[in-house]
Amino acid sequence: MKKYWILLLATTFPILAPSCKKDDPDLKPTVIEASGSIQAAITEYKALLGADNGGEPGTQGTSGFREINWDGLTDAESAPNLYAPDLFNSPTAPRARGIVISTPGTGLMVSADSSNSTSTPTSFGNINPTYTAIFPPFSGERLFSPVGSNIAEIRFYVPGTNTKAVVRGFGAVYVDVDRLENAAFEYFDINDKSLGVYGTPALNEGHVFLGVLFDKAIVHRVRVEYGNSALGPNESSTVDVSVMDNFIYGEPQEAK
């Protein structure tokens, strides 16, 4: 399929766009993307999913969404400490949100906030001091990233359980996407069949949003690509690093 990219800077609104690559040509999901002022796109994506189902365990009906903004984490759960992959699949509220995250790297990390007890720099400044300037948070102060890799793998479960689940879609806020080809989601069904690769807009040192919504709950896994390099102390003209803020995804339904 022909590739379409749309960049919106000072003023932006939700965009409905096709995938950049799909394994199944019959899938015609709704794609909403924006850069710069992204709140309208996020609001539209949430409205398409339904109500906010919070962090209660168990599936809360067949519609709605779950959201993670990272800002409720404690200092012990944030940088310089690693993030527990199943933290938001706790069996109790408010962290029963049905998401487990992994990486082929050394671990996952949520950045520190400005009031942390160890004086750890915000926005992953503990990894590279320049990051505090180039990674402006979207909501609150905490951000999310894999460490030692630029790849994260997301899997969905019935909230608070080990029962595999599927969702209608997944969307997230990227921070500092410099190149179009370096930030993307690839969606997979319960049988690990690819449902397509979807790229984001780009905005240096700013916010972009990408949300993909399928007609039914079909997504079990999402492969997330962050730039072309893991976070690290060295920067060059060929290195493109990015991180994430809010995650928004459909209500997890038990996979049949």
Describe the structure.
- The protein has helices at 39-49, 131-134; strands spanning 30-35, 65-68, 99-102, 107-110, 144-147, 151-156, 165-166, 169-177, 183-188, 194-199, 203-213, 221-226, 243-250, 253-254.
- It is mostly beta strands.
- It has a single domain (30-250), classed as Jelly Rolls.
- The longest helix has 11 residues, at 39-49.
Q: What's the Cα radius of gyration?
A: 17 Å
User: Which strand order does the major sheet show?
Assistant: 1-11-8-13-2
Uncertain spans: 1-19
Described by the principal axes of the CA atoms, the overall outline is globular
Q: What kind of sheet is the major sheet? A: 5 strands, antiparallel
- Give the overall average pLDDT: 90
State the end-to-end CA separation. Answer: 30 Å
Number of helices: 2
Number of domains: 1
CATH class category: Mainly Beta
Structural class: mainly beta
Instruction: Tell how many strands the DSSP assignment holds.
Output: 14
- The fraction of residues in strands falls at 25-35%
Please give the share of residues in helix.
Answer: under 10%
User: What's the helix-strand series?
Assistant: EHEEEHEEEEEEEEEE
CATH T-level fold name: Jelly Rolls
In CATH terms, what is the architecture? Answer: Sandwich
